[in-house]
């Protein structure tokens, strides 16, 4: 009897596990009429009957307000998978081609990876040959390069987990893995950004002897480290329990405790923008006291002029951060956020 009881238990558990796996897979349907029942019910309340008449489908494809209203209603009343399946079938019904930008992202990503590796290798060779002495600025920029390489590696892995394509064509396991990789990439970026800023500040300490200036630089170093620690802690605790950082996408409204993620993103971008401007202005006040020849002085000022590009890049990145923070299609929107930030890191290094 115990054998039969165990067998029944195994069959039942296998059935429920199979049902769970099926539920987390994207739909194989090709007609919007076969959308999830909950999604159809919500959409039918927004249009005239019959629900999927040619006129209604045409409106759905060309009327952005109707499409947004349908998404909002389905999101509030149905499961996230129901919404994803509806969006997938809407794309088919409207004849929109599937996004396939993963190979482009890999190309840009590996180009950045190559530039970082070559640049840091050349810097190490210059130091090893004795042309210049090692300093804290060298060690911090090497550590930043290691984190940038880690970021590039995980960006490459993310292209195999949905990055550059529409999120609704992937199953739950793939999307969850994408968010885990996303967490690693974001932390690698925040820490590498801090280390590159520290490298520049340590370079200032090696270059300029003025004590008042050095005090300002040391205070800036402390501020940079402190804000990075604060934002890292806020990032780790933005969703509670912790596993919701990669599992929380499945539920709306968000479950557990949630910090104001948009405020964290904007605060981090704002602090770094102010820091960019400050670090650009800071050394310019000292250049005319170095006694350099006009040519060398112009060259040094040109080097610091790269800061203008960094400030502009930081400003350009903010709208993409806002867009990504509100997007349900994270695998599609994330490249718009991460590629500008990789460019900023690369320019700094």
From TrEMBL:
Main localisation: membrane
Pfam families: Fung_rhodopsin (PF20684)
Signal peptide: 1-23
Location(s), subcellular: Membrane
Domain (Rhodopsin): residue spans on this chain: 122-334
CC terms in the record's Gene Ontology section: membrane
Keywords assigned by UniProt, alphabetized: Membrane, Signal, Transmembrane, Transmembrane helix
Domain of life: Eukaryota
Transmembrane segments: 107-126, 138-158, 178-204, 216-238, 258-281, 302-322
Mode of membrane association: Multi-pass membrane protein
Family: Belongs to the SAT4 family.
Protein name according to UniProt: Rhodopsin domain-containing protein
């Amino acid at each position: 009897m115990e054998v039969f009881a165990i067998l029944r238990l195994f069959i039942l558990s296998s059935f429920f596990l199979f049902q769970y796996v099926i539920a987390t897979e994207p739909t194989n349907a090709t007609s919007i009429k076969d959308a999830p029942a909950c999604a159809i019910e919500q959409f039918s309340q927004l249009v005239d009957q019959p629900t999927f008449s040619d006129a209604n489908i045409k409106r759905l494809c060309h009327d952005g307000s109707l499409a947004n209203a349908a998404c909002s209603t389905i999101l509030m009343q149905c499961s996230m998978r129901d919404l994803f399946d509806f969006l997938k079938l809407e794309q088919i019904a409207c004849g929109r081609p599937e996004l396939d930008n993963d190979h482009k992202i890999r190309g840009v990503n590996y180009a950045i990876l190559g530039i970082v590796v070559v640049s840091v290798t050349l810097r190490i060779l210059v130091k090893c040959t004795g042309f210049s002495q090692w300093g804290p600025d060298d060690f911090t920029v090497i550590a930043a390069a290691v984190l940038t390489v880690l970021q590039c590696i995980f960006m490459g892995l993310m292209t195999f987990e949905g990055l550059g394509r529409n999120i609704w064509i992937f199953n739950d396991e793939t999307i969850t893995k994408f968010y885990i990789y996303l967490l690693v990439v974001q932390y690698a970026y925040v820490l590498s950004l801090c280390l590159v800023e520290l490298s520049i500040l340590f370079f200032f300490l090696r270059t300029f002897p003025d004590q008042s200036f050095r005090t300002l630089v040391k205070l800036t170093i402390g501020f940079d480290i402190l804000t990075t620690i604060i934002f890292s802690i806020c990032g780790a605790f933005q969703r509670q329990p912790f596993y919701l950082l990669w599992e929380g996408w499945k539920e709306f409204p968000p479950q557990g405790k949630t910090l104001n993620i948009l405020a964290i993103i904007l605060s981090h971008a704002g602090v770094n923008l102010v820091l960019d401007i400050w670090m650009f202005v800071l050394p310019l006040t000292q250049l005319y006291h170095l006694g350099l020849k006009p040519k060398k002085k112009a060259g040094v000022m040109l080097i610091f002029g790269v800061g203008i590009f960094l400030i502009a890049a930081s400003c350009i990145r903010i709208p993409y951060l806002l867009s990504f923070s509100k997007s349900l299609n994270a695998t599609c929107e994330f490249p718009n956020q991460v590629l500008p930030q990789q460019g900023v890191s690369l320019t700094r290094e």
